[in-house]
Design brief:
The protein is of the alpha+beta class. Helices cover about 55% and strands about 15% of the residues. It folds into four domains: about 110 residues, no CATH class; about 120 residues, GAF domain (Beta-Lactamase), CATH 3.30.450.40; about 70 residues, Orthogonal Bundle (Helix Hairpins), CATH 1.10.287; about 150 residues, Heat Shock Protein 90 (2-Layer Sandwich). It has twelve helices and twelve strands.
């Protein structure tokens, strides 16, 4: 750990402490001389004074006190008194033992003090890091999150300057009373992974901010702080930035969900509003057609109105179903359904759209009844037939069929349109996705196929496409056969 001396520990303060240590030895000498204590007691008095100075001030002051105590002990208490000479050789041994003991004890005491001060600084840094982490986690995210994080760091550690460079947005965020710029050379080296931490000065630190193993930015700090704390702050920055991104993503996703729900609700409401006049029109045309007064051209026109009313009614019903499926507001109503009858029903419903287009039904002999939602599977097949009508050539045949494969019931619609590339085949069931070949030539919103897949997955199956560019496409609804679900 790098220890930076606090500004208040200036040179004149250190000199004052040394002088105070010497004066303390002088005071003990005077006291012992005045009380007239023996040499042993005087030696212990000097030793205790040195220990107090070592524990209170430090190693330098305690060594000065040890030497001063040795000189005073020799001059005032060892014979011949008043000189720095020693008559008895045993006193040399005693004086050396006193000096060594005083210096060693002062060193030990000063070492203990340094360790205690280091522990206190570490505890203080831990408390500040805890407070910083709590402040970062309490931030609500948003675009101002990085500058708020920098402000929290500057306040928690009482730093003069904090700067954060975010690589993804190439933005610089600053906090603190001073401005700090990250040198371009250091920025390049840290982002390139050549150095993890740079220290251009005694109170200036630069460190990398990582998302996992990827460098995401550079943190610069000016102030009294250890390298360990700098690395911890960089990690907290990474956690905070990642959390802010997650919150922003969740917020956007929530807004998108709310938008989809609102759109589905509005579409559902509008579709229901269409139902009322369509029902009235249907009732009126049915009543008029039942009266034989209208013949010829008028009856033909009324029949067209009646058929188109049925078509509009089916389209509105499909819109209601699709809005509920998009909003996730639907439940399966399973019943025993014959695939043959279901396909016949779909072809009958689509007959007004087919005009002169030939449509073929292909049914395997071993296709059994299945426990499925009749209305939703019919909706899915109508979407696939409608998709084939849009993309296949004008008078080409469309095939609709069902088969059993690997204990699964498969409904499929085959056309001889332009086909789909393998890349687009993986995305064709995504919402709003449209192939590049027919994006402008064919009308549509890109929702129908995503609804088909949602319905298939609600049944526990899936939907996919088999296609070769230039040779048509075969869209498949794959549903698991579960005889236990048959009523």
């Amino acid at each position: 750990m790098q220890i930076v001396r606090h500004p208040r520990d200036s040179s004149w303060v250190a000199v004052a402490k040394v002088m105070a240590a010497a004066l303390a030895i002088g005071a003990v000498t005077a006291a012992c001389k005045f009380v007239k204590v023996n040499q042993t007691t005087t030696g212990f008095a000097f030793l205790i004074t040195v220990l107090f100075i070592a524990s209170g001030w430090g190693l330098t002051e305690s060594i000065v006190a040890s030497i001063a105590g040795m000189l005073c002990y020799n001059f005032f208490f060892l014979p011949p008194v008043g000189t720095f000479t020693i008559a008895d050789p045993q006193n040399w041994i005693a004086l050396a033992a006193f000096l060594v003991t005083a210096i060693v004890s002062s060193q030990l005491s000063a070492s203990v003090k340094r360790q205690a001060n280091t522990a206190i600084r570490r505890q203080l840094e831990l408390e500040r890091l805890y407070a910083l982490g709590r402040a970062i986690l309490l931030e609500s995210g948003g675009r101002r999150a990085p500058v708020q994080f920098a402000r929290h760091v500057a306040e928690a550690f009482e730093l003069r300057a904090v700067v954060l460079y975010e690589a993804s947005s190439e933005q610089v965020y600053m906090a603190g009373p001073e401005d700090l710029a990250i040198p371009g050379e250091i920025l390049h080296k840290i982002l390139a992974g050549q150095v993890e931490t740079a220290e251009p000065g005694p109170d200036l630190h630069f460190a990398v901010v990582r998302f996992g193993t990827k460098p995401a930015g550079v943190l610069g700090i000016r102030g009294v702080i250890s390298n360990t704390a700098v690395d911890a702050v960089a990690s907290l920055f990474a956690i905070g930035l990642e959390r802010a991104r997650t919150l922003e993503t969740e917020s956007l996703a929530k807004a998108a969900r709310q938008s989809e729900e609102l759109k589905s609700t509005l579409l559902d409401a509008i579709a229901h509003e269409f139902k009322t006049p369509l029902t009235s029109i249907k009732a009126a045309t049915t009543t008029v057609l039942a009266d034989n007064q209208f013949t010829g051209q008028y009856r033909e026109l009324l029949s067209i109105v009646d058929e188109e009313t049925d078509r509009l009614n089916n389209l509105v019903s499909d819109a209601i179903q699709m809005s509920r499926i998009e909003g996730g507001k639907f439940r399966l109503r399973r019943s025993a359904v014959s695939p043959r009858e279901l396909i016949d029903s779909v072809i009958g419903q689509m007959r007004p759209r087919l005009e002169d287009r030939p449509i073929q039904r292909t049914m395997a002999a071993d296709v059994p009844q299945a426990a499925i939602d009749r209305d939703l599977i019919q909706l899915s097949l109508r979407q696939l037939v409608d998709n084939a009508l849009k993309h296949a050539p004008g008078h080409s045949a469309i095939q609709v069929g069902a088969e059993v494969a690997n204990s699964h019931l498969r409904f499929w619609v085959l056309d001889d349109g332009p086909g789909i590339t393998p890349v687009e085949a993986e995305r064709v069931f995504e919402r709003y996705f449209r192939g590049h070949l027919n994006r402008d030539a064919v009308p549509g919103s890109g929702i129908g196929l995503s609804v088909v897949r949602e319905i298939a997955r609600a049944h526990g199956g899936d939907a996919f496409v088999e296609s070769t560019p230039g040779k048509g496409s075969r869209f498949i609804i794959d549903l698991p056969l579960d005889k236990d679900e048959l009523p």
